[in-house]
Specification:
Number of helices: 9
Distance between the termini: 14 Å
CATH architecture: 3-Layer(aba) Sandwich
CATH topology: Rossmann fold
CATH class: Alpha Beta
Strand order of the largest sheet: 1-2-4-3-5-6-7-8
Helix content: 25-40%
Largest sheet: 8 strands, mixed
Number of domains: 1
Radius of gyration: 18 Å
Number of strands: 8
């Protein structure tokens, strides 16, 4: 049963337009301003402080801005490569460092987040190429594939799956495991849940069409590196997929989990009743988010000391 606190917090998120003095929720259309959207998120993110036990280190990886998020007493020699979300058109180290800190603390893993190139200025495959660049840099600088877990949320969750497929395609050794929170896995956005969950989720109406079109920029949406649902998952490492039943991406997550499992991948699909898009990032604001965050972090930790996870 959904907790009262989650109902309240999710209700506030869904009605965030009221705090801006608007009677109706935002609709993303041809008048949408990417620059304003980014600036608004940056302004909020800049005011958020990291936990005191977290240290940070900004670095440049072949002209890509990146930041290490380091918990106290991290697991020796192991790390999390985190790919941030933001609809393929927003997000950065600044906007996601506070979220990555939660994963770093929960998993006790030294964690790296980075500023991959964004649409519409840099459509597919620019962002994915940056993900490959950063992963390859890690291998060149002392990390072994078996010491790396990759994960992300939303667009970053999609890019996580795309990265695995791209590494396999290029013959680059794969990471130990990966988690994917609320990915869109078919960028045509044709799954039924885009319709029946549109009133339930928190994604701005129309965003899944406008933003994904900015990212695709006329490329074939069935290209597996754009839409991982169409990829060959044979040989990929264990996957943990997390999704809420009120998400527009619900069917996409269910479908990609089924495909990957049918191709021999060890898949944990975790469905959360009445939860919204990328809700684990709202941890610790309500119990469901805290528990989901805990499970994902345990998966990341246990990748290096394997245990079984059950589907639910």
């Amino acid at each position: 049963m959904q907790t009262i606190s989650s109902k309240i917090i999710i209700g506030l998120v869904k009605n965030r337009h009221l705090f801006k003095g608007k009677l109706k929720p935002e609709v993303v259309d041809e008048d949408f301003s990417v620059d304003k959207f980014r600036a608004d998120i940056d302004a909020v993110s800049a005011r958020i402080k990291l936990p005191k036990n977290i240290t940070t280190e900004k670095i440049i990886i072949n002209q890509i801005q990146a930041e290490w998020i380091i918990p106290a007493n991290p697991m020796e020699g192991k790390m999390l490569l985190y790919i941030h979300g933001g609809g393929f058109i927003s997000g950065s180290c600044l906007t996601h460092r506070m979220h990555v800190a939660k994963f770093a603390n929960g998993s006790q893993l030294r964690s790296l987040v980075f500023d991959y190139r964004l649409a519409p200025e840099h459509p597919f495959p620019a962002g994915l190429e940056d993900c490959i660049e950063v992963y390859s840099w890690l291998l060149q600088h002392g990390y072994q594939p078996q010491d790396i877990v990759v994960g992300g949320e939303s667009a970053g969750a999609t890019l996580t799956l795309s990265l695995l497929l791209a590494l396999k395609e290029r013959g680059i050794s794969l990471p130990k495991a990966a988690f994917s929170i609320s990915p869109v896995t078919d960028l045509r956005c044709l799954a039924d849940s885009f319709v029946y969950n549109a009133p339930n989720d928190v994604a701005p109406m129309g965003s899944w069409t406008v933003w994904t079109n900015m990212y695709m920029a006329g490329n074939d949406p069935t290209d597996p590196l754009l839409s991982p649902l169409f990829g060959n998952f044979t040989g990929l490492p264990p996957l943990f997929i997390c999704v809420g039943t009120h998400e527009i991406h619900l069917n996409d997550c269910e479908n990609v989990a089924r495909v990957a499992e049918s191709q021999g991948v060890e898949v944990t699909l975790r469905r959360w009743d009445r939860m919204i898009h990328a809700f684990p990032l709202l941890s610790p604001m309500f119990p469901e988010a805290k528990q989901a965050m805990r499970e994902i972090c345990e998966f990341a930790k246990q990748a290096f000391t394997p245990v079984s996870f059950r589907k639910s």
